[in-house]
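PT: before anyone asks, these are the final sequences, not the draft ones from last week. 1115 residues across everything. Please model them as a single complex and drop the result in this thread when it's through.
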Amino acid sequence: MILLPLLGVAGQILFGKPRGVKAKDSALHRLVAIGTSIFAGIIGVVLVVRLYAQVGAGGAAGISEHLDWVGAFAISYAVRIDGLNALLVLLISVVFPVLLVSEWGRERGARGLNGLFLCLQSSLYGIVCAQDLFLLFFFWTLSALPIYFLVSIWGGEERERAGFRYMMTASVGNALLFCAIMVVYYAVDPNTFLLDQLSDGRLSGIRFGFLGGSVPVASLAFTLLCLSMVLRVPVWPLHGWFSYLMTQAPPSVSVALCGGFIPAAIYLFVRLSYGLFPFSLSDLSPALVAIGAFNVVIGAVGAVAQRDFRMFVASLCVTHTGLILVGVSSLDAVGVVGAVFQLFAFGLGVSGLMLFFGILRDRAKSSGFNLDGPEAGYGGVASEAPVMAVVTALIVASLLGFPGFGGFIGNALIFMGGYSVHPGAVLILGIGSLLLTLATFSVYMRIFLGKYPEGAKSTGDLVIRERGFLLPLVFLLVLLGVYPKPLLDMVRPSVEALLQLIH
Amino acid sequence: MRDWILVLPEITLALTLSGLLACEIAYRGERVRLVSAIALVGLAAAFLQTVVARRYIGAEPAAGSLAIDGLSSYFRLFFIALAFLVSAMTVFTREIAIRQRTEYFAFVTAGALAMCFAAASADFMMAFLSLQFLNLVGYFMAGYSKERSVSTEAAVKFMVFGAASSVVLLYAVAVLFSVSGTLDIYAISAAMRAQPPTYVTSLMVIVLIYVSLSFYLGVFPMHLWVPDVLQGVPMPTAAFLALGLPAAGFSVLLRLFMAVFSSKGTEAQALWPFFGTGGWEEVLALASGATMLAGALLALRQSSAKRMLAGLVVSHLGLLLLGVLVLNENGIAAVLFNLTAQLFALVGVFCSLSFLYDRLGTDRLEHFGGVLYRAIPECVCLILFLACFVGFPPFPGFLGRFLLIGAAVREQWYFLAIIATLSTVIGIAAFLRLAHSLGGPIPDERVQGFESGGAITGQRMFLLLLLIPLGMMTLFAHAAIDWAHRSLQFQLW
Amino acid sequence: MEYVPVLILMAAGLVIGGAILLLSHFAGPKIANRFKDVPFECGVPRFGGAHQRVSVRFYLVAILFLLFDVEAVFFFPWAVVYREYLSINAFILAEMAVFVGVLLLGYFYILKKGALEWD
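LR: through. Structure below.
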């Protein structure tokens, strides 16, 4: 049941590549790719619906599957969908098919692109659903490789350097996570990788001898986990690789990265830190909240100053990461539920934004992304493409947290949850949100409103295909804002179960 | 009768060898394809016979100087499979002219024969002789391309190192002989148990044997031949030497360590006690760590793809040495698993590289630009095989590295585990350099690829077929590791 | 004690030989002459350089001789115990026959490859 999306998606790579050798406009492999992705997505949605029914009936255990893989080392193929990762499964199920449809128009190298995206989808599913640390690490490391190839082959001018820098940072992060996992694995007496057996605070009292002194396992592993996360998710001091990557990556890859990978990574942080290291997390939570709030402000300030659209989105991502981090570290049920929800809303929103930008770039065919200056070629698009303007406006509204959209629910919950614990941080969050609003509005103004520059080619409005993939995103965002109850109901029991350890 | 069946694979190899030599005298010209078929069939037959012979493995040695047990059977399968794959690779490569092929097959078969004898030797005389035989074959293979001075230099370096290592081995054997009065491994072990040698003697013997075998293993004291030899030889030879020599070294080292210098612990997971307590652990640990780092750093700055591969190979061999350091079932089973994964991965890498080298004429990284779009399947295979070799997730290389590092951590070699992780990361950086150099700007129009035809399809099929064992090893990792453990069960003591 | 004469003989040889050489070096006249510096060729005036190229077939023949000579070396121990083992059964004869046969195969290989041709 759960094996199907993962294996079917991975098998697509074999399927997609040897096809269509001659005709470069052969649609068959594209159809196969999109079909597999949608099929996997549908399975994901069906599972989530089943989970919802289960939660409605009172159970909170989730749907799981467990196979032994390497018995000698207690590695098993254990996956589960429960409240925490249900939203992320939905996110991935929506984002990737949309992504593949948006890449329909690419003539060269489409097979490789689709294959790599499907590989990425499979690995993200794996990260999100895995309950066994080895399996988790397996998919985590696997997810780094497709992004590297996607960027270094289809990116901008300096793509190789950006890709290389990304990969090295990711590899160091992976190595740190590997050390953390090793430490945890060998600290528990019947060595096990299963998250279920490692949680419930088992790790709290164990110390192990290292170079003569004894170090508490939980703190050591938690530190390694934090460091490794910092290297793969953009947090303020070490986000240089991320900005560089964003400026060089093609828009669809940015979507995959921001809308797919970053939510999955943050979810991973939530699950591991609450599940394995609850006490270390509660010790460190004020610091994490401070870092998150700081990130929000820095990201917003950066966003105001940006001239390049991609850098702007990168700063946006940093801001939202900070916001979600505050929610995660608030140790309060409302805050964590809000953070998880915001992951979904943010993923959808940023995907929509970057997809829109990809469309615009394809139309205008301009290589520069600057928003100022007469050679920018942007400005006054609303007069030529009203539908695009409206759609983008809705996406932007959700990202900023306007009522009626998904982003509002997430923001509100995080604010409420954070306020009870760290009022000062919430104040800073508010300031950051205001700054972000300013920045986003100014960008929107520059692109859409104003006069249309003379002599520039006219950009058409959204065609059917593009409406086809942007509208579902908008629809979902509106739906989330207006009727979030089913999703919130699914998430809450799992979050409460996780938080029991702390209180 | 049973003895003959147990030795049948070696006999088949010898018969194939003489058949190839006869072919070389008899056939000229167009009959060469028949020769390739003879070589491959002979090797396949030997492989099948090894599989059959496994059923006859018993509890006592087959003959006085050969010990056919689980370990030697595993290594025989490895060597014959290696010879088979390398022979198949030879058919596709252009570096070895068709008229030279018969001789080349003869060398490969002779090398496999030497390695099989080395793996099965239960007598120091046999071990020494087979290692010398292997050395000889190695010298010839290393200097094969006579027109290139790099090749001659490689052969000379190989010869110097080989001669030095054999001398050191002989001296160590002489010391052991003086201690125990016999050359048979098991008798020596019994004598040492009855009357343990002094600290100085045992330390000296361990160090000497380690230094001499480190030539074959390509690890710390004698790892300098690997980059030069791998750069100078044709690709099939590179695969053969890079995989076969270390595996032969490991087989001898494992047998010596297990049979002579330690005794089997009572439980499966316990560390096997070692004789004389000559501080061997520190020596091996130091060597292993140094090799891993040296290899990885060496690989990082190379501008020639073959030398970079050589650095990665050296680093991987250091990692395998870590498994030997953990002298218990987990460690050694991990070593065997890794060797199997490495077999397919490295053969695949060299085969893809040979495709590129045949068409580009160079293996320098700066000339690789844009090749990715001209030969997509081969480049993708190169990247996948190399990713497996450096230890990327969906491939058995990753699982193998985890097993080795896990075994080390279990025995509390934390520092070495950290070094191993570090060297893996550096190896990944080297791999990225190679992968990145294959890329380049996407051409606007469809670029004329390399010529297509029957030969290329054969090579592609070969590459794809090599991917299949890798995939199977990932999915059925449990079975693979189990098989490695079971090979160790049949140990003769 | 009975080896003392040997020692005396060695010492005498060293001393006398060394004395003669040293004496001629220090007390002899040193008149340099162009003809005295020419390498000695039994009185015949020299011609040609010293670095003659020698045909590589000498080397081939020498190596092949070495290989077959080592084979001959293996005959000797066999010959010593041959008579005694022959009384048991003919196995020892068959063993040597196989050994010679393998080397004979090698000999045919060399023959056919033309390693023994002189040009």
